[in-house]
Design brief:
Elements (H helix, E strand, L loop, with lengths): L5 H21 L10 E6 L8 E2 L10 H5 L2 E5 L2 H10 L13 E6 L11 E5 L2 E5 L3 H11 L3 H18 E11 L4 H12 L4 E8 L19 E8 L10 E6 L1 H7 L1 E3 L4 E7 L5 H9 L3 E3 L5 E6 L1 E2 L6 E6 L3 E2 L22 H11 L5 E4 L6 H8 L3 E6 L2 H13 L5 E5 L17 H12 L2 E2 L10 E4 L4 E5 L5 E2 L1 H13 L7 E6 L1 E2 L3 H7 L4 E5 L4 H7 L16 E4 L3 E5 L2 E12 L10 H13 L5 E7 L8 E2 L1 E4 L15 E6 L6 E8 L4 E7 L1
Parallel strand pairs: 1-32, 2-34, 3-19, 3-20, 4-7, 4-18, 8-17, 18-19, 23-25, 24-26, 25-27
Antiparallel strand pairs: 1-20, 5-6, 7-9, 8-9, 10-16, 11-12, 12-14, 13-14, 15-16, 21-22, 22-23, 28-30, 29-30, 30-34, 31-33, 31-35, 35-36
Length: 671
């Protein structure tokens, strides 16, 4: 298929993007507007020793507390931004239209990138493929190369413009592949007159050994960061940088003040008055030229950390002084392939925001923007469509001991991104194939219009196949349960829901609808298999497995003078079948061994709400792999928590665990 011409496609990209964005903005006030579901209110308190908790944050009865919290959002950023623009009156979360002070994004561009995530388990490393939602998102972004990438980006940039305040700024970090095209889009969206700078960052100091392909061109060691503002009233806080010199370099570049025993440089007097010049001369800060012209001295200082001499200069648009991507400090690294150095974000955030301002990053990745914004006293919102990214960010923020934040998700509202593939014309056609592989019979359109429904003959059992582009949650299970009573006159014994991806509330939803609904997992590699062979060759060979679950030992409570001491211990973790995880076969075998020998090693993160209200999970204690404060073991969590909490005759304890693949389990117990 010939590559589409970017010159002819750009007007269509703009027109289609504007239509999509306009339709989104029109829907913001509709009853069906997208809202965010709060998975956790995280009050960072990572495992370190027996801990006491006394929180004044009452999320259920004080919605203002939610409004003031920072947010980590899992899901498609197009949907996340819609939810932020719409707000949610029921939870007291207002619309953020015109309320964001700074946006930084680093949208990845590499159609050939391997989006696998390396996981280290006892016994070795394995490589996890992207989730089904991520697979469809990436395929949609790259299906027509640069054209589809720009189609993805355009409406998102429009929504970012709507979120920005009148004095807001946006920085878009991009590489050489598409930078020039992205600038054309940004000129259209933000106005060419609001373009301030192309910042060039030297992301590598040296080049490696050239391949035969690289010998055809100069090696690329820079990225571009396009800086736009919302209006001409926006100002930046000028930043200064240190330029370091050795003694030998300083002798060549600067003059030497014998009296002060230090180096100096000198500059014209500028607008200083004669009186000021006389005062500077008394202070030894004037350098008189041979012609008697006074020049202002600036003394070269010595850095207290490395002992080197340095001069300070205003930062211009060429950034060669910041950490390159290969030399991020070991303390800063979080094991994320596209992580950017914190000092880049520090410079941007300091320049274009003030303390208390709201900073957003909608391609959150490793969480650098949020981490730096927190450290600099800014509020923040970050999002990512990747489960691994949100796991990395949540752990990084807890490790940094940030202020309480919300962990939210799009949930059942995930975008239907499948516009047609070589395999299937629509989701309904794919659903019918999956249904038949399970052994069910699709209804005809004369019987049921929804092609996702079918039945098992002679069993009075419905089968519902959910979309691969959607998170299956409570709303889907409620619909399946209601269908047993209403579809074709009702009288169905149960409904089996076959799904690809699951929202955080799925465990509680399964418990709620367990009388009428059974949930099974569609193997995520089924799509790959269907690309390679006819479905008829797969009959009887596809395994649909149940969801994972967590088991606890009985929770112990001891009442003391200080309150109740709760002892909570993990007992077992049953992972869903390795066939239902996006892995290569050799890695599946490694997971099988861990499941058999050390199943709790699969737990990546677990947290506790000792006073669960049945609605909002408040994460008051957390532990995760890489937290070695208690056990010095980076490959395992601790499996016991002793929490001292205020005394109550009875309480509901909720324990939540997320495994290394991002699957979540919840246990609720009355104590």
């Amino acid at each position: 298929m010939p590559t589409k011409s970017l010159i002819t496609e750009l007007p269509r990209i703009v027109a289609d993007g504007n239509r999509e964005a306009a339709a989104i903005l029109d829907r913001l006030s509709s009853p069906n507007r997208i809202t965010l579901q709060t998975n956790e209110v995280v009050l960072p308190a990572k495992a370190s020793s027996a801990m006491r908790f006394q929180s004044n944050l009452n999320v259920q009865n004080n919605p203002i507390a939610l409004k003031d919290l920072n947010r980590l959002i899992y899901g498609d950023n197009l949907l996340a931004m819609q939810a932020l623009l719409a707000g949610d009156p029921q939870t007291g979360l207002p619309s953020l239209r015109g309320k964001v002070d700074l946006i930084y994004i680093d949208p990845p561009f590499d159609s050939k990138a391997d989006y696998r995530t390396k996981l280290t388990l006892p016994g070795g490393d394995i490589s996890q493929k992207p989730t089904t939602i991520e697979q469809f998102a990436y395929a949609d972004t790259w299906k027509d190369g640069t054209v589809s990438y720009l189609r993805m980006l355009y409406p998102r940039l429009v929504l970012m413009r709507e979120l920005l305040s009148d004095h807001g700024s946006i920085y878009v970090h991009i590489d050489w592949h598409v930078g020039h095209y992205v600038k054309v889009l940004m000129d259209e969206i933000f106005g060419k007159e609001n373009f301030r700078n192309e910042i060039v960052w030297q992301r590598a100091k040296t080049v490696g050994r050239m391949s035969s392909e690289e010998q055809l061109k100069y090696d690329s060691v820079t990225d571009s960061i396009f800086f736009y503002v919302k209006s001409d009233t926006t100002k930046i806080n000028k930043q200064r940088k240190k330029i370091f010199y050795t003694e030998e370099q300083a002798r060549k570049v600067f003059n030497y003040d014998e009296e002060r025993e230090c180096y100096f440089k000198h500059a014209p007097r500028g607008n200083y008055s004669d009186e000021s010049i006389r005062q500077f001369d008394v202070e030894g800060r004037i350098y008189w030229t041979k012609t008697g012209t006074p020049r202002i001295k600036t003394f070269i200082r010595r850095d207290q950390t490395n002992g080197m001499l340095y001069d300070e200069q205003e930062v211009a648009n060429l950034w060669t002084d910041l950490s390159d991507m290969m030399h991020i400090s070991a303390e800063e690294k979080v094991g994320y392939s596209t992580q950017k150095p914190a000092d880049i974000l520090e410079r941007i955030i300091k320049a274009s925001s003030n303390e208390g301002d709201l900073v957003c990053d909608f391609f959150g990745g490793s969480g650098t923007t949020a981490a730096v914004a927190e450290r600099l006293g800014r509020r923040w919102i970050t999002s990512d469509i990747g489960k691994p990214a949100t796991l990395v960010m949540r752990k990084r923020l807890i490790d940094q001991e940030v202020k309480p934040f919300l962990y939210q998700a799009i949930g059942d509202y995930q975008k239907e991104m499948m516009h047609g593939t070589r395999l299937f014309k629509n989701i309904g056609e794919l659903s019918q194939v999956v249904m038949q592989l399970y052994g069910a019979i699709p209804f005809t359109t004369d019987q049921v219009l929804d092609r996702n429904f079918g039945f098992i003959k002679d069993e009075r059992t419905l089968v519902y196949v959910d979309s691969p582009n959607k998170l299956t949650g409570r709303a889907t299970l409620r619909r399946a349960s209601e269908a047993t009573q209403s579809l074709l006159g009702g009288g169905w014994k149960r409904c089996v829901v076959l799904a690809w991806n699951f929202s955080f509330d799925i465990s509680a939803a399964i418990e709620e609808y367990k009388q009428t609904v059974e949930v099974l997992v569609i193997p995520p590699d089924l799509l790959d298999k269907l690309k390679k062979q006819d479905p008829k060759h797969l009959y009887g060979k596809v395994r649909f497995s149940g969801l994972q679950y967590l088991a606890l030992h009985p929770i112990e409570k001891h009442t003391t003078a200080d309150g109740d001491v709760l002892t909570i211990r993990l007992k077992d973790y049953v992972q869903l079948s390795p066939e239902s995880i996006p892995l290569d076969e050799k890695d599946r075998e490694a997971v099988r061994r861990v499941m058999a020998e050390d199943p709790l090693a699969l737990i990546e993160y677990w947290s506790i709400d000792p006073d669960y209200d049945g609605t909002t999970f408040r994460s008051l204690w957390q532990d995760y792999r890489e937290n070695t404060a208690m056990d010095h073991d980076p490959l395992h969590c601790v499996y016991r928590a002793d929490l001292t909490v205020p005394h109550r005759e009875s309480r509901t304890v909720c324990v939540k665990a997320v495994d290394v693949f991002g699957f979540e389990s919840v246990v609720v117990e009355r104590v």
